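Researcher: Sequence of Dihydrofolate reductase follows. Predict its structure.
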Amino acid sequence: MIITIAAIGINNELGKDNQLIWHLPNDFKRFKALTTGHYIIMGRKTFESFPKPLPNRTHVIITRQKNYTVENCIIVDSLEKAIAACPKDEDIFIIGGGEIYKQSIDFADKLEITRVYHSFEADTFFPEIDTKKWELISEEFHSKDEKHDYDFCFQSYVSKQ
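Model: Prediction complete. Tokens:
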């Protein structure tokens, strides 16, 4: 199954200057729980926004740079090649960035979204979730608290196709 996972603001904001624009520890925990042990597909800029490769995951990095190399990562030049590099019988997670999300939203099987209930200044956005194509199957609301500056909700969508 191809699963797109993202945290997005109320206007589909993803980030600014290749960085997240909020800090939600429970979102990080959910991301880790869902993606650990799996292949994760991302663009080069998303990969470079991490201080180091994420542990216990196989990184598949999409870049147009011809001689780009990262130890213990799979490097490809298209989303199609990234998916082909992953096992066919396992869940694959697409983790960003904005352009990779745009390319993948029409053929992903599931969306795992953290919806952050705030408007942010951003330069990167998630594609609109078309409710004709996607069915919301679960939703878990969390109020802001001492560790979370914003209300947020974990949402799971499945493709209606």
